[in-house]
Amino acid sequence: MIDMTFQLIAFFMVLINFTAAEQNERIKLPASLLAKPPDTALENALTLQLTKDGTVFFGGEQVPVDKLPKMLQREHNYMQALDQDPRQTTVIIRADGDAKSGVVQKLIKMCQEEEFEKFALRAKQEERI
């Protein structure tokens, strides 16, 4: 019985979604009927989390949007040092539902200036009744 319990624990640990570590509970995603989880995990992903007051959580730090270009440039240089193409990296933007859409557009533009071309906007899936 103990062996079976251990095997079940090991099985469920393998199935845990580790992307939850990249999520911040202060970001309240907007709801959408069209939102659905991705079919497969992204290989190269960069997560930006925009709060409703316009600051960004990136790499464990909370920074104003204006400070983000330096951090994106650092990330770009790091990827090039690892022989990775920034154009193949998907930038995941998790914006609070009350964040201004103009700030989201500004984030996308900043990323594009550092040669990041793929984007994924996150929303929570609305429950259908």
How would you characterize this protein structure?
This protein is of the alpha/beta class and 129 residues long. It has one domain. Helices cover 32% and strands 22% of the residues. The chain contains three helices and seven strands, in the order αββββαβαββ. It has helices at residues 2-15, 68-81, 101-113, and strands spanning 31-32, 45-50, 55-58, 61-64, 90-95, 118-121, 124-125. The strands form two sheets. It has a five-stranded mixed sheet with strand order 4-3-2-5-6, covered by helices on one side. It has a two-stranded parallel ribbon with strand order 1-7. β3 (55-58) and β4 (61-64) form a beta hairpin. The N and C termini lie far apart (40 Å). The model is unreliable at 17-21 (pLDDT under 50).
Topology:
Layout: H1 2-15, E1 31-32, E2 45-50, E3 55-58, E4 61-64, H2 68-81, E5 90-95, H3 101-113, E6 118-121, E7 124-125
Characteristic key phrases:
extended, two-stranded parallel ribbon, about 130 residues, alpha/beta
